[in-house]
Every structure is written in C-alpha cells, then in structure tokens.
Amino acid sequence: MFRSQGGKFILRIEDTDLERSTRESEEAVLRDLTWLGLEWDEGPNKDGGVGPYRQSERTSLYLKYAEQLVESGHAYKCFCTDEELEAMREEAKAKNLPPKYSGKWAKANKDEVEAELAKGKPYTYRFRVADEGSVKINDLIRGEVVWALDTLGDFIILRSNGQPVYNFCVAVDDATMQISHVIRAEEHLPNTLRQALIYQALGFPMPKFGHVSLILAPDRSKLSKRHGATSVGQFKEMGFLSQGMVNYLALLGWNDGTEDEIFALDQLIEKFSIERVTKSAAIFDNTKLRWINGQHLRSLPEKALTQMCGEFWEKASLLTVHEGPFVEDAVRVLKGGLEVVSDAGKGLSDLLSYPLEESLCSPEVKEIVDDNLREVADAILTAYDSGDLQNAIKSGHDEWQKWVKSAGKSMKRKGKRLFMPIRLLITGKRAGPDIGSAVELLYKAETSGVVHAQAGLVTIAERMKRLKEVEWDSVSEKLASTVKAPESATVLAH
Description:
- The protein is about 50% helix and about 10% strand.
- A hairpin with a 3-residue loop joins strand 3 and strand 4.
- The strands form four sheets. Strands 1-2-5 form a three-stranded antiparallel sheet.
- By secondary structure, it is mainly α.
- It holds the Pfam family tRNA-synt_1c.
- Its EC number is 6.1.1.17.
- Keywords: Aminoacyl-tRNA synthetase, ATP-binding, Ligase, Nucleotide-binding, Protein biosynthesis.
C-alpha cells in the first residue's frame, strides 16, 4: 500500500518483549523481507532521520512522553502490588464483570505519591481513562468503529521495570515517525482504542486505521503449526518462490476487480487499492498457493528454472551434477508438473522408478488390464527382443511415434487404448509427462552417467525383465478381488 500511495516503507523492530525478542529473530525478519522483495526505505540498517528503529533503543523517548502525560494529568504512578491487582480481578470475576483497574491511585495526591517513592516502592505508569464517553475512528475497511470507555479502566503504559507497554510504544513511534496509515489485523482493534486515547492525550494527529480480517485455516480456525508451515523461511525451504508467495498473500482478502489472479510485484503496487480489501476472513488454501506458485515457477527464464531444479536434484542425491545436458533435458520434460521447486524431486524420482507390480494391482487400472493388456505387453517385449523398441527410444521423438503408430496398427488400437497401456507397461504408471519424451529421458538417464547411485534408476532392460515375469492370470484375480460386488437388495411392496 505504501508504494501505491507514493509513501515510504519504514521498518521498525518492535522488540520490547525482552524474552521473545532476539537478534536472531530480528535477522530472520530482515532475511524474510529481503527474500520476498519487500525493500524498506528506512530501518535498522538504513537511517532516514526518524530512528532509532529498534524500540529497545527508544526507551528514553517513551519515558519523556510518559512524564509528559503525568504532568498533563493523563497518566499517574500506580503503586498497587500484584496481590492487590489479583484481588481486583477476583472481585470482578465474582460479579461477572470484565477485569478493570479500580483506580486506587488515580486520585492520590502529591504527598501520598512522594511517600511511596521515598519507601522505594516499585510503580507503574497508568493512563487515565474517563468513566464515560466513547472513542470513534473511521476505519478504512470496517467503516465507523466506536468504543465505550466505561469498561476499559486505567491501563499500564510503563511497567515497574521501566519497560514500555506495546500500545504506548507504537502510539509514540507512529506519531514521531510520521506514520500516516496503520493497516493491521482485526484482532488489534482493542489496541487501537488505547492508542487512540494516547494520541489524543499527547496532541498527536491520528493516523488512518484499517483493520483487515484474519487469515484462517480451511476449518476456519486460527492458523497454527498443525496446519503446516507458519513462517516465510519454511515456505522458502519447501520450494516456493518469493513472487508466488507475494502474489498469493496479496489475494487473501483483496482483488483488482477482474478475474486476473497472476500478478508481479510491480503490478500489485500499481493496482492495489484499500477500497477493494474485503471485511470477510480469508481462508488459507495451500492448493491455490501451489497453483499460483506453479504459474510463476513455470514462467521463469529457462536458465533460472534449470539452475533451481539442478541444484535441488544434486542436493537430494538424485544426480551427481547440477548442470549439463541431462539437467536441461529433464527440466524441459518435467516442467509441466512443477508447482514448487521440490516437485522436481518427485518428478525425477517417478521417472526413474518402475512400480509396475504395484500399479497392476490398483483398481484404477482394471479397465486397462481387462482390455487385453497382455497383448500390448507381448508386443512391447517382442519389439524389445528385436531391438526395435530400443532404436525407437534412442532415435528420438519421430522414430518413437513411428513405432507407436506401427504397434497400434498391428493390434488395431489407437488413442487411449494404445497410449495408456504403453505408458503403464513401460513407465509403471498411469500418468506422467508425454510418454515419448519420458522414455527418451529415461534412456538419457541410463547413458548420461550423472544419475546418482542412490536415485533408484530402473533401466529399460530391468523393466523388460520384470514385464516378462508378470503372471497375468494372477493380476486379473487380484484385481477382481479388489472390486467389491454390489450388495443385493429386496424391495417389498405392500
């Protein structure tokens, strides 16, 4: 949004939670944003005049404004102990009321405060909230939002250890960093109420707020680790592209008013409008994410895609090299089945393997088997014994097509009755890339010398040996036993 409005992207590290905030977590954020292509104009490593950019380095600024609020009467020092606060919570709970600070120190005079300070008692800074009235904002997405103040109670802005609370930090930071728009999840609406009060008390101009809906899991629960990857780094490791991730995330709760779904980052910047962000929750659909990523992956320049796949194959111990003629040929053949880079691993593994026996026992091939599959097997084995099959495979696409056409003519088969049995018997699978391209690549895998010993390559010779050993009567019996006979039913007429 900031790019579409001609604004700046300021990266602020909100690290006041000392237990959870580490330099490693900060580096992960910087690394993930860089990978996504989201370049910031100002931040920890790019000073633009409104730093420091880590909240942990802005403590003196927060203390200054906290004291200003005390002087103006909008805040006060609270000396309540943990036991006293717990008693207040229990009392509210007993009355079926929301927890609310009693205001014990809100009306303390100067002498009472000085006496506690002299004793060295710890204290927090509390923001004073009116007992009546309301706060209103015009949300860019949800329209007018109004909160009543009578249930809020005075809230802490500085803890007893001097650490500022999130709501106070971000209000001061947004104002002093001249943030014009605050766009965040709807679960921050309660925070917006507190921040709006702080803006008003300090005389800061109110930014424009927009609260987007949460991204939910397919079961409409909140996304969590049980639903899969939860960090940008994990998606990167799974083989997703940055442009695919940005494209998909932009479409969660937004569209440009057309049927278009594939956008580059510069197109998203040009087309984005906050007015087209929806109020309804977006559902995270991993299938759709993979589809969008696949569109971007397959449209990469051939050299870039080949490099990605080659490096993956070498790292996965499928190939002993990451570049060269075989890698280039393999990418061209397997490209159509790629949605994430890691799909290249499965694609090549499938090509090298030969699960014939398993496939022949699958109910999904019963129709193919019942259509005299043995006839096609005999034709393939005869062609192999004569050398015609090998010549057709290694001579390229045209010779392969000639052999298939000739085999079909001799068996009076064509179309699916010809192609599907040949695919099943030579590759061991019902589906895959173009069969002619697949068997040619299989031949190159045998002869290139770059397939890793652990890759599970089943040679054409080994395939034909196993095909000869198939007991067709046994195959038919096994398939018949997997098909459950329909139960008989009796209809009674009255």
